[in-house]
Amino acid sequence: MEPLYEEYLANHGTIVKPYYWLSFSLDCSNCPYHIRTGEEARVPYTEFYQIFGFPYGPAYPQTKHLTFYELKTSSGSLVQKGHASSCTGNNTHPESMLFEMKGYFDSALHNNNAIRHIILYSNNSPCNEANHCCISKMYNFLITYPDVTLSIYFSQLYHTEAEFPASAWNREALRSLASFWPQVTLSPISGGIWHFLLNSFVSGVSGSTVFQPILTGRALADRHNAYEIKAITGVKPYFTDVLPQTKENQNIKAQAALESYPLNKVFPGQSLQVTSGRQQPNLTPDLRVPVIFVLVPFRDLPPIHVSQNPHKPRNIVRHLNMPQMSFQETKDLGRPPIGMPVERMEITEQLASSKEMDEKKKKKKGKK
Q1: According to the UniProt record, where is the region Disordered (predicted)?
Q2: Which of 233, 286, 352, 356 is 20 to 30 A from 60 (CA-CA)?
Q3: Among this protein's residues, is 95 annotated catalytic?
Q4: What is the CA radius of gyration of the chain?
């Protein structure tokens, strides 16, 4: 098989031209080496923050695409790690490069049949727009390699909102890709995966920096992604929700942050929902509120409950604020207070009959 790419040995891995005809370009800072393997795949923390939106959450519309990947055996042993970056000069997405027929992944599996699992960590979910056809290439790849599983993690959904012309096409393509379950899983990056990415794919990060807290803005965006991908595909994603949910009062700070933080500082361009004359921000986190995070291993988490019709009104039960009572007071509600005189009255047939006799006597006296 004659591949489309060219691979060169570097100091800490390899650098790859995904298409042998690519050359240095002033229009793209990454050209021509868009695929990097081993330790060459690490990126600076500032680049990771800007593209993936960690730890604050997405800050502005993202034009760059970056995908980290792992190739593993059936036992979970790592064969190779790397990353693929988008080409702004040729308008090509990373997934399109990696899953191209006779491309890098196709060649890797052709030369190493021990690879059984591919894991992608992308800043954007894959699309199927005409210029890229990422999902179509993935689809054909999975049919060619039915024994290979594919796990896709993303930090934000790409062009699935109604305002994008290709949104319906992208959503349908995501549903089609999700139909390969369990061979394919689509999930948001969340929880401990963020710390794994810092440790494995980001340079200049060590020690406590790797396990820095996941801030509320990022955690809310991850929760939103999990909700949306479940609504689009109908398949439960793998997801670790680090925001407390068990008790309502545990989330007071996060809720207050949502109501008080200016929207345009975190999610510029997004609209506000107005309910009953009051503006309700949508995913507007306070970046100063960290989430206390406990590392959770990957596992099958409970399903995310998605409403069948998000526009259907909900039944709201309002509770009155009752005065606080002690246990003894509530226990004694059914008995009278001590010291209050109690008068018991019994109404019997005898009492009724005595009244009737008195009335008859009065009538007889009146006749006389």
Answers
A1: 348-368
A2: 233
A3: yes
A4: 33
